[in-house]
Amino acid sequence: MKPKKSLGQNFLNDKNILSEIVNAGDINKNDTILEIGPGTGNLTELILKKNPKHLIVIEKDKNLSLKLVDKFKNKIKVINKDILECFDELKINEPLKVFGNLPYNISTKILTSFIKQDHLDKKYKKFIFVFQKEVADRIVAEENTKSYGRLTILTSWKTNRLKVFDISPNCFYPMPKVWSSLVTLIPKSNILILNKVKNLEHVTNIFFNHRRKMIKKPMKLLFKDYENIAKKININLNSRPQNITEKQFLEICKLYENLI
User: Fold this and answer.
1) What angle do CA 213, 147, 7 make, to 5 degrees?
2) Cα distance between residue 18 and residue 23, in whole Å
3) pTM above 0.85, yes or no
4) Do 78 and 57 contact (CB within 8 A), yes or no?
5) What is the domain-level CATH number for residue 252?
6) Which pick of 24, 63, 120, 251 has the fewest CB atoms within 10 Å?
7) What is the DSSP track for 30-62?
8) Is there a domain that residue 245 lies in?
9) Of 129, 154, 187, which one is at a domain's C-terminal end?
C-alpha cells in the first residue's frame, strides 16, 4: 500500500520498535484493546500475539480497512471512520488500553479529545501513543523548561505521563523528517474537578500567549483583585508562565470559575 500524504500516513515497520511498543502496554488476556490508525497491521499483529480479550481498530482509510478485515478476519473489529468522529461508538463496558501511531497533523487533537472526556479513569486504563518528538516533549515537560505549556498542563491534569523512548525516522515508511517518541499516559483516579475543560484551556491560553512576559498581565485580565489572588496561591507576579506549576494553574482556573 502506498501511504497517503493527505492522511498523514507514516507506517512504522521496525519490528524491534513495534515489539517495545506492545510491551509498553502490558497486555493481558482480560484487556480490551483499541488501536488507532493500524495502517497495514504491523502493530495489530503483535498485539494479537498477546491474546487480548478483544481488539478494536479504527482506520480512516477505506482500502486499508478492507485489507485489515481480509488479513485478520474475525480476530479484530474494524471501524472504518475518523477517530475524531466515532467516540460515540466506543461505548465499551470495560476500560480500554489504547494504542496509536498518531498522524502528526492531528495527534494533539486526538489526545485532547480523549483527555476532555469525563470519568477518564473509568473508560481507559492506559494510552500508548507515538507522537512527533516535539509534541511528546511538550506533553511530558516540567515547569521552568522551554517545552512546558498548555498541552503539558491539560494532560498532567488527568494523567501520569511518561516518555518511554525516542524513535528514529528510519523506522518509518515513508521516512518522516523528524524524530518520534513513544509516550504512555495513565489516567489518574483523583483529579481536581473543574466545571468545564474549556475554562482551563482559556486560562492557559491567556498565560501562554504572553509566554515571555511576566504573569502580572494575564492575571489582570482574569481577576480584578489579581494581587490578592496571587498571594492566595503563592505565586510571584514577576514570574513567567513557565515558572507556574501545574497545580497552581489548576488553582487559578478554579478561582476563575468561581467568578463566572
Assistant:
1) 120
2) 9
3) yes
4) yes
5) 1.10.8.100
6) 63
7) T-EEEEE--TTSHHHHHHHTT--SEEEEE---H
8) yes
9) 187
